[in-house]
Design a protein that fits this description.
399 residues, alpha/beta, 16 helices, binds ligand FNR
Length: 399
Amino acid sequence: MDRRSFTQLLTLGAGSLGLWKTSAQAAADDTGAAPDPERNQQGAQPEAVNVADIEAIAEAKLPKATFDYIATGSADQVTLHENLAAFKRLYVYPPLMKGVSDADLSTTALGQMITLPVLLAPVAAQRMYHAQGGLAAARAAAAAGTIYGVSSSVGNSVEEIGLSSNGPKWFQLYVPKDRAVSRRLVERVERAGYEAIIVTVDLGEWKDADRRNRFALPKEMLVKHLRDVGFDQITDRMSYEDVVDFNVNAWDLSLSWPFFDWLRGITKLPLLIKGVMRPEDARKAVSIGLDGIVVSNHGGRRLDGMPATIDVLPGVVEAVAGGAEVYMDGGIRRGTDVLKALALGARAVLIGRPYAWALAADGEAGVVRVIDLLREELRNAMIATGCAKISDIERSLIS
Ligand code: FNR
């Protein structure tokens, strides 16, 4: 079935029953009750069985400009496509007869136990995808047993997200120029119980689709976002243009390494740097004592023409030489992608678009579903390669 007719089918089938079975419904279905004859009829509501299905559901539900905001990449989208293509170029060589019939996917990230090596990457504007936005994503991450990377621009305050679940959270910092605001924000992050800070340093998106669609946050969301960060001077009474102008000038886009000295001086939380693509930058990050490195090209949303993250990962891992934990994101769509990233040295991976689509498709249940899909795909890949536990995933699995 081509993608268009699949999307149409989903649109037609999307009724009040939700777009797919949740795991709880699936379990209830397995209780021996008589099979529902309608379920097997042609045209019955299809289940999302992979990330691409979830993307199709999101596309059918979201306004075009919002879908494009999530899905597209910068300029000619070379980097966006490369992130995906590079995974497809890597082949897995499964050793046989390892006596493995199940796998333990649990691991740790900065000492935090997680049930699988997949974290939720910081993603902005989540209330545009679902009314519950980041609150739903936080609950889903907690239910799935993983870490929620909370964007500075998620759409809810640090405290609202903090209270929405007991699960582990890392806060992603975009840095206000006004360091008094930055400091207060970091203090609030600590008080709200976040366990680490990710500083994203590859700043600024350049996406043709967003300019063509004139994609913009509605005024209410932009005002709330700025107030949530701590810009108390922003009020509802300001004109939209004034709020936009303020936003354009509010953020520090000229970060340099000494910023981390300042940040280290005001917080004891573990620090990660996100946006690393070069081994020498990774070495520098280790030399100044950062705890984690996220190899990332911002999902191909910033500078077009950068290579795939999976291709630069081995060089970064080598440069870091165990001095910090190395994570990667960009293009993870399958459990085998997670396996490949771990084989090449990543501690764990982060996903962006897959859970943004899932949030649009079915809120909290959708995000749980997409994590579970990746979990089962990774489990299958581990069993097929004789890996009973995460530390069994070795470089030799990859060509
Ligand atoms: C992002 N990303 C991002 N990164 C960040 O540090 N802060 C942010 O606010 C956002 N916002 C954002 C919005 C949307 C819609 C997307 C898709 C991505 C980048 C994100 O953290 C991650 O690096 C990429 O999404 C990873 O690539 P994949 O998984 O989307 O291929």
